[in-house]
Description:
Helix content of chain B: 10-25%
Strand content of chain A: under 5%
Distance between the termini of chain A: 52 Å
Oligomer: heterodimer
Shape of chain A: globular
Helix content of chain A: 25-40%
Radius of gyration of chain B: 16 Å
Order of helices and strands of chain A: EHHHH
Strand order of the largest sheet of chain B: 2-1-3-5-4
Amino acid sequence: xxxxxxxxxxxxxxxxxxxxxxxxxxxxxxxxxxxxxxxxxxxxxxxxxxxxxxxxxxxxxxxxxxxxxxxxxxxxxxxxxxxxxxxxxxxxxxxxxxxxxxxxxxxxxxxxxxxxxxxxxxxxxxxxxxxxx
Amino acid sequence: xxxxxxxxxxxxxxxxxxxxxxxxxxxxxxxxxxxxxxxxxxxxxxxxxxxxxxxxxxxxxxxxxxxxxxxxxxxxxxxxxxxxxxxxxxxxxxxxxxxxxxxxxxxxxxxxxxxxxxxxxxxxxxxxxxxxxxxxxxxxxxxxxxxxxxxxxxxxxxxxxxxxxxxxxxxxxxxxxxxxxxxxxxxxxxxxxxxxx
Lengths: 133, 197
């Protein structure tokens, strides 16, 4: 559907929850951490698999909050400038449910987003000074 | 900024690229104009040109709105979720989710509670992929992966400009100004191409 401008959108489009994204179900996972087993975690694993954070794709992901998921969350948090807790805190969930580009962040295990950079590179940049001339 | 693995780009002998819209979408001139403006954002800073043609099958860049599974292995998922995707050069495939509520002009910020998405913002981002840029961690950059509904972001950040100019060089007419500033975020993937500062 195309709208010429914002004022041409019918009022019912601005009512919250009329149409929810499939990713809104992740809101129920708030506070989850390693060792938990909760319905919906398998869908979150599919999400991280789709965008390259969990490289392998078994026939069916389990609902276990395992090491692979914790690692994926930490990498995601690093890429999106969030605190690297490995837990599904509110800031992380709010980022996850945002609409986004369908292209993967990590392609064939490789990325040059934050998680693909070495600490030595960042250290070099942090101490690099320039002078206007 | 980031590049796709192997740093693919359009060949040096293809500086004048053509684009076309999927005929079945029957897009209006207003919608097509959004893409024209999006291409200009990039052609301002690099020596590439983008010209619309009628022939979808022969165009270098092929733009289409699709719903659900559309045969490329990356099905769309309805309203919100994934909005669009594009393939690395020289594929030229540029797909948008036909289930979204696209706004094609004007300020969208007053409607942040809706499912409306600014089309030009997404178009500028996807063209970055078509040209060879991957996702960036710089939140102000065009190539940041997410965009909230009710948000409009169409101006290239310095991060985007630095990245795309490593691939193609600078447009001779580009005066070097950018609307936003950001920090250079990354190195390339095993790329022998030198970084020029």
